[in-house]
Amino acid sequence: MKTFRVYSDESRQKCERFLLLSALWIGEDNIEETENEIKILRHQNGYINSDGKHIDFLGEFKWTKVSNKYLPIYEKLIDLFFNWIENDLARYCCMLVDTQSEAVNAYSNIKKEGYFKLLYQLYYHNSKNPGIYKIFPDSIKNPTQDKVDFNDLDKCLDRAFMNKFKPLINPSELPDGKGFLNNITPVDSKQSEFIQAIDVVMGALGYFQNRHFKKVGANKAKVKLMKYVIDKLVYSGIIQIQSKKFLIAKSTKFNIWMFRPNKKDPC
């Protein structure tokens, strides 16, 4: 049975209408290839130090660090990201959460347990194929969110995956003594190239969705990178763009969807 890794990140900006949660689904057999591509990117954008030694680009890829100086390497990272998508090496999903929606605010406390329910929705609805899932969310640094244990999400999602995937496979393919969820292991984004890439793509989408590009004094480098990402979406030919006011994209490879809660609690 195939093993999938899921890397995820979320926006934590204050006073913004849309909270974004994003994840990248990568078959474990594609991990080495995609990681090597980032290593090559870092090597090609390194420098020679005073001792004549080549030093790779070591900076953390992060939306908050986008600047004119580093814009070219960030564009190359975006190129890599969309090449993964187009060549079926990875799938991406971004979930928009409207913090002004009465239904969303009634769903749960977004700042605490609601955040984990939103992660559940992201993982459950976008894990499409029976397989073993290893999930790696970005480590949560918010003190309020730190109080909630990922074990609850693990147990809830494990049951949901069993109900979802068990009817789709031959009983002989069932994981031996285990469910379809192998683990949920938070990792520091500094240790994960994939979470860093997600952060940059999600940052560009959030810059558009929350209309930061229209504000006086908007960061010019971020506006350029946002447009670079949007152009990739529009001209890729594989993604159906919907809605003029907010960006919604439907595809089996790259999906942006608006979260609309129902009354049923997943756990």
Brief digest:
With 267 residues, this protein is of the alpha/beta class. It has helices spanning 31-44, 71-86, 102-107, 113-126, 143-146, 150-165, 193-209, 220-235; strands at 3-10, 18-27, 47-48, 54-55, 90-98, 132-137, 181-184, 240-242, 248-250, 254-258.
Overview of this protein structure:
There is one protein chain. By secondary structure, this protein is of the alpha/beta class. It has helices at residues 31-44, 71-86, 102-107, 113-126, 143-146, 150-165, 193-209, 220-235, and strands at 3-10, 18-27, 47-48, 54-55, 90-98, 132-137, 181-184, 240-242, 248-250, 254-258. The chain has a six-stranded mixed β-sheet with strand order 7-6-1-2-5-10, with helices on both faces. A two-stranded antiparallel sheet has the order 3-4. β8 (240-242) and β9 (248-250) form a beta hairpin. α7 (193-209) packs across α8 (220-235). The protein is globular, with a radius of gyration of 19 Å. The relative contact order is 0.20.
Features:
267 residues, alpha/beta, six-stranded mixed beta sheet, two-stranded antiparallel sheet, 8 helices
Uncertain runs: none
Oligomeric state of the chains in view:
single chain
Strand content: 15-25%
Number of helices: 8
> Which percent range fits the helix content?
25-40%
Please provide the ordered H/E string of secondary-structure elements.
EEHEEHEHHEHHEHHEEE
| Major beta-sheet overview | 6 strands, mixed
Average pLDDT reading = 88
Distance between the termini: 26 Å
